[in-house]
Amino acid sequence: MYKVDPQPDPKEVAAIEARRNQEKEQQSRFFSVWTREMPVDAEALNSHMEEKKLWKAKTQSKVAAYDTNQAQYDMVAQTLEKEQAEWTPHLVKKMHEFRKQEKQPKKSRELDCEDSGRLWREFPAQLGDNDPHWGPASLQYFSGEDWYRATCLRMQQEEFMRSLQKPQQEQQQARVEEICADTLSEQLRLAVDLRAIQVAKLEQCCREAIKCATAKANKAQVAKMAKQQRREHQQQQEANLTEIQNQITSDLLTENPQVAQNPMAPHRVLPYCWEGMTLEQRAAIKKVQEVQHHEKEAQCQTKQALDIIWEGQSMCLAQAAMELEELNFRGGLGFFNQWLAKKLLKRPLNSIIYTNQPTAQYHLQFNTSSR
Question: Which run of H or of E encompasses 156?
Fold first, then answer.
């Protein structure tokens, strides 16, 4: 009988169970928030932290060296300013003394560049266009004259004061700019730290949101898988019940012989529905076998009788052939003896010798010595 539910292969069942266990383990590893494993390159992180520490140490050493150099430069600049402030009065005093001793107006023959009021003292400046000292043809302006000398002196003094105050202003400006730069750098550092804190808070919020979303997605996925498994189990149960009902109500268990008949060829049967032969069919087959057995025995007996007849005929034919051969031999022997007797009658008797051969036949042998 054809097996409806064949036994599954143990190897295939073991392979399916192994794949199912592996898939469950992978799902538990990916869908579980608490036992999830994320790949992290520890060596890269450690090397990145070491590089960051080295960079911070180098930056701090550079800043400390810059501060030290700046302090040294400030001390040197202050020392130079003090020395310049101390030596400037002495130099001015010595310069005035040298001019008083060596560059007197009586001794000098050229114009003293330092004494710019000499010519003015000798030649008074023009008082105006109506000056009585000068006529209509007199020159109104000569080299060295300056109507705006007081203004020029005041402007020169102001410029000199500005040139003296400029380094101090520049130093003050540089200090103010340095203070502003330090303040701005401090503010920038505070802003960067505040920004880093805000970014860290945002990252933490994003991580929490991602974790919540992942947990919700995992729960939804688990619920979906559970629902799918329940649906598959229900479908499997319904299919099993349907198959059991079909097996119970089908003609397979009723042993109906008409089910096994092939609709295309009535003389053939369907192997998966055939329940075997009936007793009548078996009895008919046994009767046919007995008839065939009797016919076979009759054929064997007929064949044996024919063989005996053929053997008897063969023996008769062989005996007749032997007798015919013997008659032929006797006839030939008589003819030979006659011929031989004729030959012997023509020879003398002393040349003939009689010998008895094992064949019990008499043969004549000629004596070759009488020749």
Answer: helix 149-249
Separation CA 340–CA 364 (nearest Å): 9
Rg of the Cα atoms in the chain: 76
Q: Structure tokens of 81?
A: 């300013």
Tens-digit pLDDT profile for residues 151-161: 878 888 888 88
**DSSP H/E element including 96:** helix 42-102
DSSP reduced 3-state for 30: helix
Q: Where do we find the tokens 């008895």?
A: 356
Q: What is the pLDDT of residues 200-228, one digit of tens each?
A: 888 899 889 999 999 999 999 999 999 99
**What is the enclosing helix (H) or strand (E) of 354?**
strand 352-356
Could you give the CA distance from residue 194 to residue 184 in angstroms, rounded to a whole number? Answer: 15
With both helix axes pointing from N to C terminus, report the angle between 149-249 and 10-31 in degrees, rounded to the nearest 10: 150
Distances (CA, A) of 211 to 119, 224, 236: 98, 19, 36
What is d(CA 3, CA 125) in angstroms, rounded to the nearest whole number? 147
